[in-house]
Amino acid sequence: MSKDEAPIDDFDCVMTVDDGPEGDGRIVTVCEACERACCWQGEFMCDDARHAGTAKKTIRELKDLDLENPCYWEEK
């Protein structure tokens, strides 16, 4: 398993890789179909969630997409 494929905790969708100055480089696991972390976490699932895989997005990319509230991928 490569460094990029390292497993993460089932309850934590954020994996720190490159924080950058504002933490925007962190990697978040999202639903491949709708590109939302809340779907992958099982909170608000999209119609395609049952058969969709997962994808990795940076917080910077998720901010640009603006599909969900940042509370699903911000550190608490």
What would your notes on this structure say?
With 76 residues, the chain is α+β, with helices and mostly antiparallel strands. It has one domain. The protein contains two helices and three strands; from the N terminus they run ββαβα. The chain has a three-stranded antiparallel β-sheet. The longest helix has 7 residues. It is globular and about 35 Å long. The N terminus is likely disordered.
Counted up, domains total 1
Work out the helix count.
2
**Radius of gyration, in angstroms, nearest whole number:** 12 Å
Which runs of at least 5 residues are low in confidence (pLDDT < 50)? 1-11
Record keyword descriptors for this entry.
single chain; 76 residues; alpha+beta; three-stranded antiparallel beta sheet; 2 helices; 3 strands; disordered N terminus
List the helices and strands and how they pair.
Blueprint: E1 14-15, E2 27-31, H1 37-40, E3 54-58, H2 59-65
Antiparallel strand pairs: 1-2, 2-3
Summarize the structure.
This protein has 76 residues and is an alpha+beta fold. The protein is built from 2 helices and 3 strands.
